[in-house]
Amino acid sequence: MKRVLLLVFCLSAFLFSCKKSGIAPANTIVATVDGVTKTYVVEPIITFAPVNQLIFDGYVNHDQKADWISIWLDASAPITTKSYDLGSSYIDAGYSPANPSDSGRVYYNTDDKYLYDYNFTVTIKSIKGNNIQGTFSGQLLGLFRKSVISVDGRFNINVERRNVN
């Protein structure tokens, strides 16, 4: 009997310790920037129905002097489960590494002028109620186009939808 209980306990502990690696926790962005993976906390997003825009940004641990990442997707029709890229939609993605002061921050952004050299894709994988999940990947350009960083990640965002009156 003790062996059966021990086996059940160990099996339960193993199953509950497994993580779903493909899904980010709610209201987070998990991103890998030039090989370094971090989790960014996102404030709840307010959108207006119909949802043609998805805009969210986050900081590591809510610290505004920490790493920052932002995604802005503006589609010509309501957002659905599909892939959007710079060639077919307006996407503005940005990243800024941690900086102890508010001045002198370095920013990396998408730039549609360099569409054929660098691309950025946002894929909406799931829209269920007020929850939107997806992935993103691409290159962001630094100041004066002197540096390029690779970014990829996933997001799990809860939105509050409001009707436009």
TrEMBL record:
<protein>
    <submittedName>
        <fullName>Uncharacterized protein</fullName>
    </submittedName>
</protein>
<feature type="signal peptide">
    <location>
        <begin position="1"/>
        <end position="26"/>
    </location>
</feature>
<keyword id="KW-0732">Signal</keyword>
